[in-house]
């Protein structure tokens, strides 16, 4: 250890522009005290299940090192370890190589024994046991020769002891530690990247690398050991982004279930703000976003570069749904809505709430399902007609709304229609009351709509609030939002989910011609339903060679009387209890006012908060076997809260009472993650229309007494 250095100082070793932390205590400190996670890249002993772990050293990015140097008092960078540390590392490495060599020899002996037994079994079946015995004795003699043993030893040493594989041994010593300087960030692009990193850190995120996703950073809302990343952040430093790149980045976000974010930096100089605006090609008006470029004005002299903190910036996050930007102040060409900046080509501000343009209020009728009072004056409003309530589909789509929701129950329902991650209402109202026997229609804009959800609420007051079931999202507008007394309900509603494609004739149809939809019971169910399809249904569910066609989805037999009241989530007693709760006798019924109004899936029962559930993390045992989370399919690690599709299907969830009940009552409907049911469907946009009927003819009573 160097003179004057104390053991409580964080030691970061640098070699070839890579930075490593080798001490366990240092790795713990920077994670717990400074929210720096780094990446563990080492290996540990070969024991059961430990192949999924990584260990020291902890690899740090240059941004993480720069931050630590600016924040941690007494942190040091060392170009070389001490002689004692080198000696200990070399000794440990040699012991590990010898241990691996012995393990390889044992594995080879086991393999040889297994091969001989298999060979003997096959020859015995053919009546050649005498020949086999002679051959086995000859093999044994050969194996005992000195030549064989030396050959094995050389082979094992070559495979396991390959010096090129060991990257982190004794660092080079060309530069004395006293002369080493940390020169990152050293140019304006690096300053931009670090500024975005710092801004994300100041927002409370853990930050990891997004290289495998084609971005710069992954932003986590909590420790990556316990949370999944929410955002893929790409730092853009110059030039306009091609529309094809933007679309590809957006599609990547959809595929990996993360929000793609393009970030840029704008400096404050002399009290003003410098902006440079690049507008996307007019051919792509549906993403007509403005890009704010990074143009720093700092001095490029070495003395100026040595003072990182003198470079003051504020970064703006440009989310790919449009030009909504989180910022403390808006440039002249953008308007303000609450704490967001927006382009009036893409958004409007309704009572302080940012709303997509295609759902903004207009002076004309513009509506498609009645006004905010739920009366019959809007287009496609209440028709009081039950003639189509049990239509099995397949007929003409002429004159139909894109989606018609029919209430065939014997009670009044409120229909919720929401869209997007924020759950904003579609197409402009939060709830619509539907008397028993009536319906309401929704006409989707020609350019489509993403992330829409439609479901029914029961037992509500006259304003569609304080329901017995269905208040699974906060009330709109949000803010103020809010939930009924006791909190929002678990999201177990029977619902229709769809991302609507562009209709024929719309400029975007060639790029987005498909509507994707599903009806899923992964979280549970409430009201029995059926979905009928009309129009070009023969073009649904195509695989490139042929189309299966689809006219009817039948979940009318969903019966709350068959909701398990003694579900076993213990996997045959492997996990008998958790936090004082028995895992072998779960009551999945959702009961309000003495009525069963819903059925929770085992996953939702385990993970939803009290009093409806147990509040377990879905990535922990036993919830992981019921929920089957896959936050990172490319690197699915069980101990990081991920389970593969194969392990999920072979686990206990497929044999639960809940899954068996759904399969029996609603064949082809998803009942758990990675279910082999049909689940997601695809139909041509605009030429196929949908009708969702709650309580279709022949369905079970709703609700039922507990």
TrEMBL record:
- Residues annotated as region Disordered? 84-147, 365-397
Q: Which InterPro entries match?
A: Osmotin/thaumatin-like_sf, Thaumatin, tRNA_endonuc-like_dom_sf, tRNA_intron_Endo_cat-like_sf, tRNA_intron_Endonuc_cat-like, TSEN34_N
SUPFAM superfamilies per the UniProt record, alphabetical: Osmotin, thaumatin-like protein (SSF49870), tRNA-intron endonuclease catalytic domain-like (SSF53032)
Q: Where does it sit, as one GO cellular component term?
A: nucleus
Domain of life of the organism in this record? Answer: Eukaryota
- Would the keyword ATP-binding turn up in this protein's UniProt record? no
Q: Where is the composition biased (Basic and acidic residues)?
A: 88-125, 138-147
Q: Which stretches make up the tRNA intron endonuclease catalytic domain?
A: 193-267
Family stated for the protein in its record: Belongs to the tRNA-intron endonuclease family.
Q: Which PANTHER family does this chain map to?
A: TRNA-SPLICING ENDONUCLEASE SUBUNIT SEN34, TRNA-SPLICING ENDONUCLEASE SUBUNIT SEN34-RELATED
Q: What is this protein called?
A: tRNA-intron lyase
The species is: Planoprotostelium fungivorum
């Amino acid at each position: 250890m160097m003179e004057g250095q104390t053991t409580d100082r964080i030691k970061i070793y640098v070699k070839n522009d890579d930075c490593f932390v080798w001490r366990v205590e240092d790795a713990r400190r920077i994670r717990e005290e400074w929210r720096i996670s780094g990446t563990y890249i080492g290996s540990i002993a070969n024991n059961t299940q430990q192949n999924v772990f990584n260990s020291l050293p902890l690899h740090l990015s240059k941004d993480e090192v720069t931050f630590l140097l600016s924040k941690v008092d007494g942190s040091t960078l060392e170009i070389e370890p001490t002689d004692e540390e080198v000696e200990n590392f070399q000794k440990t490495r040699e012991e590990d190589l010898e241990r691996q060599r012995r393990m390889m020899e044992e594995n080879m002996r086991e393999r040889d024994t297994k091969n001989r037994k298999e060979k003997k079994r096959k020859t015995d079946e053919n009546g050649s046991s005498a020949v086999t015995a002679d051959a086995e004795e000859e093999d044994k003699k050969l194996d005992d020769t000195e030549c064989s043993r030396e050959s094995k030893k050389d082979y094992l040493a070559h495979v396991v002891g390959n010096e090129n594989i060991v990257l982190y041994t004794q660092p080079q010593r060309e530069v004395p530690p006293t002369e080493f300087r940390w020169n990152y960030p050293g140019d304006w692009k690096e300053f931009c990247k670090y500024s975005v990193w710092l801004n994300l850190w100041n927002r409370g995120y853990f930050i990891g690398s997004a290289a495998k996703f084609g971005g710069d950073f992954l932003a986590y809302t909590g420790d990556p050991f316990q949370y999944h990343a929410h955002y893929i952040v790409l730092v853009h430093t110059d030039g306009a982004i091609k529309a094809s790149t933007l679309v590809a980045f957006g599609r990547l976000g959809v595929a990996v279930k993360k929000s793609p974010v393009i970030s840029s930096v704008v400096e404050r100089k002399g009290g003003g703000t410098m902006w440079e605006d690049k507008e996307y090609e007019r051919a792509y008006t549906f993403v007509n976003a403005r890009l704010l470029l990074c143009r720093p004005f700092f001095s490029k002299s070495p003395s100026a570069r040595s003072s990182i903190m003198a470079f003051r910036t504020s970064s703006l996050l440009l989310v790919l749904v449009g030009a909504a930007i989180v910022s403390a102040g808006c440039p002249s060409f953008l308007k303000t809505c609450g704490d967001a900046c927006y382009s009036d080509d893409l958004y409007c501000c309704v009572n302080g709430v940012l709303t997509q343009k295609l759902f903004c209020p207009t002076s004309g009728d513009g509506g498609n399902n009645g006004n905010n009072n739920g009366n019959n004056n809007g287009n496609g409003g209440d028709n009081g007609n039950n003639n189509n309530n049990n239509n099995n589909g397949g007929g003409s789509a002429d004159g139909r709304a894109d989606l018609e929701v029919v209430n065939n129950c014997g009670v009044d329902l409120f229909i919720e229609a929401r869209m997007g991650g924020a759950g904003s209402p579609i197409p402009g109202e939060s709830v619509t009351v539907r008397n028993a026997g009536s319906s309401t229609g929704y006409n989707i804009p020609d350019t489509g709509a993403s992330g829409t959800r439609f479901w029914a609420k029961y037992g509500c007051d006259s304003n569609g609030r304080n329901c017995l079931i269905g208040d699974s999202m906060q009330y709109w507008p949000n803010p103020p939002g809010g939930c009924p007394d006791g909190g929002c309900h678990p999201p177990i509603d029977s619902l229709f989910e769809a991302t609507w494609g562009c209709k024929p004739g719309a400029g975007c149809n060639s790029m987005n011609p498909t509507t994707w939809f599903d009806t899923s019971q992964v979280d549970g169910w409430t009201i029995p339903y059926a979905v009928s399809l009309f129009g070009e249904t023969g073009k649904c569910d195509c695989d490139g060679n042929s189309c299966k066609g689809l006219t009817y989805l039948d979940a009318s037999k969903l019966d709350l009387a068959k909701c398990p009241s003694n579900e076993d989530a213990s996997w045959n007693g492997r996990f008998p209890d958790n936090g004082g709760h028995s895992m072998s006798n779960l009551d999945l019924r959702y009961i309000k006012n003495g009525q069963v109004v819903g059925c929770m899936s085992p996953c939702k029962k385990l993970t939803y908060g009290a009093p409806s559930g147990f509040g377990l993390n879905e990535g922990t045992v036993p919830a992981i076997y019921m929920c089957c989370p896959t936050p990172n399919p490319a690197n699915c690690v069980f101990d990081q809260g991920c389970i593969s599709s194969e392990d999920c299907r072979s686990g206990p969830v497929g044999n639960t009472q809940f899954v068996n009940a759904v399969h029996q009552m609603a064949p082809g409907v998803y009942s758990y993650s990675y279910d082999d049911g049909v689940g997601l469907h695809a139909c041509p946009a605009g030429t196929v229309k949908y009708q969702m009927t709650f309580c279709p003819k022949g369905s079970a009573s709703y609700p039922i007494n507990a």
